[in-house]
Design goal:
Distance between the termini: 24 Å
CATH architecture: Alpha-Beta Complex
Structural class: alpha/beta
Strand content: 15-25%
CATH superfamily: 2-enoyl-CoA Hydratase, Chain A, domain 1
Oligomer: single chain
Shape: globular
Order of helices and strands: EEHEEHHEEHEEHHEHEHHHH
Number of domains: 1
Largest sheet: 6 strands, mixed
CATH topology: 2-enoyl-CoA Hydratase, Chain A, domain 1
Length: about 250
């Protein structure tokens, strides 16, 4: 079964749908590879204007990394996994076309990091959203905290990270993380309606504005901070606190 579905529409949107509903659309290595491939295609294809990332079903957008696959990784192996996804999110962050996270259900952990790397976040009413990594004895490991602190005011970003709680869409809208709250009757059409003004622009205009917007994230200073975050998480990955938190997580699930 395909772990992700990639669709092109006539308006110039590429829809990337994580298709692992049985795992609450958790990310494994196969999803990573498919996302990397899709980002590269969107970058090169002049017929594509935007990339929208979403999840299958109405329960989960993305629950982060697949802990059933990654829980036994030790520090060095964990670092390789985290760096792999971190590099993918960095390429998403700096993509030369506008990007949207269409949050169709719960987004937690790495799912929030994935959404944060997108330019816009549109979320269905009633969803829960949480950077819950702290509850698992780790920090964000794909560059998500560095991205969050770039995109939100310092106090709001730090509050979200330190709370490590699931929050309502409305609360995250107040913080400025969610840009539009959707009713959910037809998420794609609601999303398409919001994107209509952007899609009326030429690809060259979209590329030019994205180049202006992302220039600050291509500096050596930003990249150093981004990948230092990943190294810190890798150290915590092998800690006893993280192991106990994961054991508790699987007992509850």
């Amino acid at each position: 079964m395909e772990v992700a579905i990639v669709e092109h529409d006539r308006d110039g949107i590429v829809w990337f749908t994580i298709h692992r509903p049985e795992k609450r659309n958790a990310i494994n290595f196969e999803v990573m590879d498919k996302l990397k491939e899709t980002i590269a295609m969107v970058e090169k294809n002049d017929n594509v204007k935007m990339l929208v990332i979403t999840g299958t079903g109405d329960e989960a957008f993305c629950s982060g990394g697949d802990l059933s696959k990654f829980q036994h990784l030790h520090t060095e192996d964990a670092k390789q996994m985290l760096e792999k996804m971190g590099k993918i999110l960095y390429s998403l962050l700096t993509l030369s076309k506008p990007t949207v996270a269409l949050i169709n259900g719960t987004a937690v952990g790495g799912g929030c990091e994935l959404a944060s790397a997108c330019d816009f976040r549109y979320a269905k009413r009633g969803c829960k959203i949480g950077f819950i990594q702290g509850k698992l004895g780790i920090t964000t490991g794909w560059g998500g905290a560095t991205i969050l602190l770039e995109k939100l005011p310092y106090t709001q970003a730090l509050d979200i990270l330190l709370r490590a709680e699931r929050m309502s869409v409305e609360k995250m809208y107040e913080y400025g993380w969610v840009h539009a709250v959707l009713q959910g009757d037809n998420l794609r059409e609601e999303c398409r309606g919001l994107l209509s003004p952007y899609l009326s622009q030429s690809v060259s205009v979209l590329r030019a504005y994205k180049a202006i917007a992302t220039e600050k994230w291509k500096s050596d200073e930003f990249r150093t901070r981004f990948f230092a975050e990943i190294a810190r998480c890798a150290k915590l990955w092998g800690s006893e606190e993280h192991k106990r938190a994961i054991e508790s997580f699987f007992k509850k699930s």
